[in-house]
Structure prediction request, 231 residues.
Amino acid sequence: MEKKRINKYLSEVGFCSRRKADEYISAGRVYIDDKPAVLGSKVNIEDEISVDGEIIQYKDKKKVYIAFNKPVGIECTGSEKVKDNIIDFINHKERLFTIGRIDKQSEGLILLTNNGDIVNNVLRAEHKKEKEYVVTVNKKITTEFIEKMRRGVRIMGKMTRRCHVKKIHENRFKIVLTQGMNRQIRRMCEVLGFRVTKLKRIRIMDIHLDTNIGEYRDLNDEEVKQLFNQK
Prediction:
C-alpha cells in the first residue's frame, strides 16, 4: 500500500471522517509507531497507528451504506458519552458514522456508512440534495402559512430558500428542502406562530424511508451511486 495521509487512512478504515481525524491529530490523540502524528503525516500498511492507545488495523473491508429509520429520542452522534446515541442503538458490527443528522426530537431517514472518505463529499453537496419531510403542527394550517413557507422565512438572520410545501391534512404538511440549516423546519414554523409536534424525514435524494422505526436496511447499488455522484 502506498503512503497516504493519516486522516485519509483513518477514514478509509472506517474509524472516523477526515475532519474528525484532523481533530484527533491536533489534540495529540493519534500516534504513528509510538510517535505523535501531525497534520499531513503519511503512513502505509507497515506503520502501527493508534488512537487513544487503540491500534487501528488496516483491513480491506466491504463498504457499508445503510438507511436507518431513527426513532425520537436517539441522538445522531457516535460519542459513547452521550446517552441514547445512534451508534450504540444500531449496534452494527462495523464502525459506522452518520451522513448528516436529524435532531433528537425528530424521526425518520438517516444514512450511515463505514466509508469515512465519502462523508465530507456528501455533506459538501448538502445544499443541493432534496430532503423530504412530513410535519405535524399544533393547529390548523392556513393558506397564508403554506405560501410563506414556500417563499422563505427569515431565521438565524437569513432567508430560507424557496421550497415545495403541500398541505396533506388540516394540521400536517409535506416539505422538500435543499438546504440544511439547524432545526430549520422547526424554526420556520415558530416564526409563523406554529409549533411542530411531529417531524419525520421520509426521503433523501431518491432514497426513501421504507423500514419500521428503529430498523435499517442496506442501500442498493443505485442508491449508493447517488452518494458518489455529488457535485
